[in-house]
Design goal:
seven-stranded mixed sheet; four-stranded antiparallel sheet
């Protein structure tokens, strides 16, 4: 199993920045890809960014503003969020994909973009 713990959420003004962190522990060797998802009130959870083998994918709405990165030595994944907009307000979840064990999720961290 894999345990994921997010941190770094909070309240930020439009145009500001936040950096989310995800600490992974457990059987990290079974993980194929890591990602960040978000869920706003009344909306479905959506993929924000994903990284696997150095390849990165982003939702169209965050391209050019968000950057996903990883530190495999520390089992950490990060999401740098710049030029934040009110529509980025959501609970952000860290995700780990395993081809054999399925998906693992963190507990989520709230990001609120408001003046």
């Amino acid at each position: 199993q894999v345990q994921l713990v997010e941190s770094g959420g909070g309240l930020v003004q439009p145009g500001g920045s936040l950096r989310l962190s995800c600490a992974a522990s457990g059987s990290y060797f079974i993980v194929y890809a890591m990602g960040w998802y978000r869920q706003a009130p009344g909306k479905q959870r959506e993929l924000v960014a994903r990284i696997t083998g150095g390849s990165r994918n982003y939702a169209e709405s965050v391209k050019g503003r968000f950057t996903i990165s990883e530190d495999n030595a520390k089992n950490m994944v990060y999401l740098q969020m710049n030029s934040l907009k009110p529509e980025d307000t959501a609970v952000y979840y860290c995700n780990a994909e395993s081809p054999t064990e399925g998906d693992y999720w963190g507990q989520g961290t709230q990001v609120t973009v408001s003046s």
